[in-house]
Amino acid sequence: MGASEIRRVFVSADNPWQTLSSREVYKNKWLSVREDQVIRPDGQEGIYGVVELPYSVGIVALDAEGRIALVEQWRYTQSRVSVEIPVGSSQAGDADPLDAARRELLEETGFVAADWLALGSIDNGIGATTDVAHQFLARNLSYQGAVNDPEESIAVRWAPVEEAADAVRTGKITESSSVVAILKTTEYLAGNDRWVPK
Q1: Contact assessment for residue 60 and residue 165, using Cβ atoms and an 8 Å cutoff
Q2: Nearest by Cα to 62 from 185, 195, 165
Q3: Count of CB atoms situated within 10 Å of the CB of 7
Q4: Which domain holds residue 22?
Q5: Which of 4, 10, 148, 173 is the most exposed place for a label (fewest CB within 10 A)?
Q6: Do 85 and 150 fall into the same domain?
């Protein structure tokens, strides 16, 4: 979508919103912000802002000792250090979410994985963004050497699965993709695979 205004009308029997027009108000290499002129479900005119993001990925990298790779990094938006699994946005060269996950795991930890299991996806910030986060469990790891992103300063540490799950339960790990993927992995390893897509 370009900077010029794009006019469209969208009405659906299931959709109580009517979009009258859309315009891009900001764009950089990571995201764009769209402002829509709308008719709200109450029939009144208004605006709706949408942050358009590429899909993202989160990876639970599990080593042979049953430990998860946790990434510690400063998060500018929250002005604090965050403990997470390797997570990141997809890029133009990524063929699909699994391809993006392989790249992100290598960039943030230096590891590649021979075995991958899709853990499903979540909608991040569904009221304001288009980001869909895909989670994976990666096993049978081998170290290749990190390919560091110059915009990131990352420390990697390894924690037993239950310790990571406790960090989620006690609020030490709060990043949404990490929370979901760690809890799904805990369930899966306990023999409950109903949370894992077939």
Answers
A1: no
A2: 185
A3: 10
A4: 6-52
A5: 4
A6: yes
How many domains, the chain?
A: 2
**Chain centre to alpha carbon of residue 139:** 19
Instruction: Give the tokens for residue 122.
Output: 């979540």
Mean pLDDT of all residues in 85-111: 95
Q: What is the pTM of this model?
A: 0.85
Contact 157, 81 (CB under 8 A): no
Contacts of 137 (CB under 8 A, 6+ apart): 59, 60, 62, 116, 117, 119, 181, 184, 185, 188
Q: Please answer whether residues 61 and 68 qualify as being in contact, where contact means their C-beta atoms are separated by less than 8 angstroms.
A: yes
Q: What is the per-residue pLDDT across 44-83, written as a single tens digit (0 to 9) for each? A: 999 999 999 999 999 999 999 999 999 999 888 888 889 9
Q: What are phi and psi of 66, to 5 degrees?
A: 80, 30
Is residue 1 situated within a structural domain? Answer: no
Does residue 42 share a domain with residue 75?
no
Q: Are residues 37 and 65 in the same domain?
A: no
Q: Do residues 129 and 53 make contact, with C-beta atoms less than 8 angstroms apart?
A: yes
Query: Which residues have a Cβ under 8 Å from the Cβ of 175 and sit 6 or more positions away?
Result: 82, 83, 84, 85, 87
Tokens representing 51? 């942050």
Cα separations in angstroms, 109 against 10, 81, 88, 91: 44, 17, 12, 18
> Coil, helix or strand for 150?
coil
State both tokens at 154.
């990352």
CATH number of the domain encompassing residue 184? 3.90.79.10
Residue 47 placed within a domain: yes
